[in-house]
Amino acid sequence: MTEFTMPSLGADMDEGTLVEWLVNPGDAVSKGDVVAVVETAKSTIEVECFDSGTVSALLVAPGTKVPVGTPMAVIGPATEPTAHTPAPQPTEPSPGFYPAPVRAVTRAGDAVSTPLVRHLAQKKDIDLSTMHGSGKGGQITRADVEKAASPPRHRVPASPLARRLARSLDVDLEGVRGTGQNGTVRADDVRAAAGKRAHRTQRAHRTQGPRPPAPEPPAMPPSGAPPVRPSVKSRPDTLTTGAPTTRSAISALMTRANRDIPHYYLSTTIDLAAATAWMLNRNANGPVGERLVPAALLLKSAALAARQVPQLNGYWKDGAFVPADGVRLGIAVSLRGGGLAAPALANADTMSLPELMKALRDLVSRARRGRLRASEIADPTLTVTNLGDQGVETVFGVIYPPQVALVGLGCVVERPVAVEGMLTVHPTVTATLSADHRASDGATGARFLAALDRLLQGPEEL
Predict the structure, then answer these.
(1) Segment (H or E) for 75
(2) C-alpha to C-alpha distances, 249 to 339, 357, 441, nearest whole angstrom
(3) What does the alpha-carbon distance between residue 3 and residue 50 come to, in Å, rounded to a whole number?
(4) What contacts 41, CB < 8 A, 6 or more positions away?
(5) According to the model, what pLDDT value does residue 125 have?
(6) Residues 6+ apart with CB under 8 A from 434
(7) Using H for helix, E for strand and C for coil, what is the string for 325-393?
(8) What's the CA gap between 40 and 246, in Å, rounded?
């Protein structure tokens, strides 16, 4: 028997709230299966189990907040299915055990579906025994279930030009009458639909009555009186960012980081001419689905540099630096509701660039949808923050404890560069390093930035 406990999903996490169980007593689980959904101060996380066996009991009810390390379920040894096992008689729950609701789970066998997939199928009333999985070995995936649950889409027959035009003019093809063969929508049909919409809009404006008079300006205060200012409470809500609990968690962690970690900062400007030319040539001659963006090259280079300078890849624990076994690159992601998450790309230094690109896209998408897993949250070894898409050129970040360094990347900017005595213009990026002076010195940080620069000058080796 082993216990499944509330995991620690970050250095700042002391407790979590169980949102939902994805398994029932009697379900077989394997190491790595997602078995529960937990809410932390920052996000909602899908949590995997670390043992294989059969769920014996669920100890915590959904909606309960418990400290890290609290036993939440008991996992017993795996049981072999028998052909004529009598149905279990209902019994009273043991004291202290949470009786899970009995669910009519439709399942196709543990070999072809995970608890998360079975749970999703149950919610969407999908019979897994009638499905054929598209995963490895015929495994039924989440995408298979979501596809089976979604109604078939009707595709309006239209020419490729008409589709491009409809997207650019924001015209819904469903409402356009096609005049081509068999009702196919042509480009002229889209232009006509867009023209009619513009005409209706103009007519609606003409039929509107005169505009209401503008509100009178507020009376001027008496001479000598202080001007009346809007109170802080009356300001738009856009001035606040993030949920209160998320903001509080970030506030506490960053206060601790600035208080306890003696930061030092370095920066360098890296010439990206070679990397950009190589990437554009590769994109032009490679499959569309494997096209790269500069961020993929920058992250892969940062991961390799962390491996080459291991003094910056690890944790500060119990008064000493503890190097990490591998490179788990934390990616700072701004959430749509406000706040930050820093999920990890495990083994980013060994991924190929297309693999890293795919993993990055998936990770960011799930972070913003609140679909991260516990293994992706726990303890990245080095975090990278990239604010280039916001137009920021230089980023000096705050280290995420217990890590000992943070890499900042700005936007790619064209700058004048001297090459063999000639002045020319190249794409460049400013890379920064915030590092913990207890674990390393400036010379170590400089070696990291030099390695990052060197790696980006040979992109074909990434």
Answers:
(1) strand 71-76
(2) 9, 30, 29
(3) 10
(4) 12, 13, 245, 246, 248, 249
(5) 76
(6) 263, 264, 265, 396, 397, 398, 399, 405, 406, 408
(7) CCCEEEECEECCCCCEECCEEECCCCCCHHHHHHHHHHHHHHHHCCCEEHHHHCCCCEEEEECHHHCCC
(8) 9
What gap in Å lies between CA 448 and CA 440, rounded to an integer? 11
pTM reported for the whole predicted model: 0.59
Whole-angstrom distance, CA of residue 162 vs CA of residue 179:
12
Q: Name the DSSP class of 124.
A: T
pLDDT digits (tens, 9 = 90+) for 128-156: 777 777 776 777 777 777 777 776 666 78
Q: pLDDT tens digits for 212-264?
A: 444 444 444 344 443 334 333 433 333 344 456 667 777 888 888 889 999 99
Three-state DSSP at 424 gives: strand
Integer Cα distance of 38 and 375 in angstroms: 13
196 vs 120: CA distance, rounded Å: 44
Residues listed for the chain: 462
| Residue 195 structure tokens | 């023209």
416: helix, coil or strand? strand
Question: Are the C-beta atoms of 279 and 297 separated by less than 8 Å?
Answer: yes
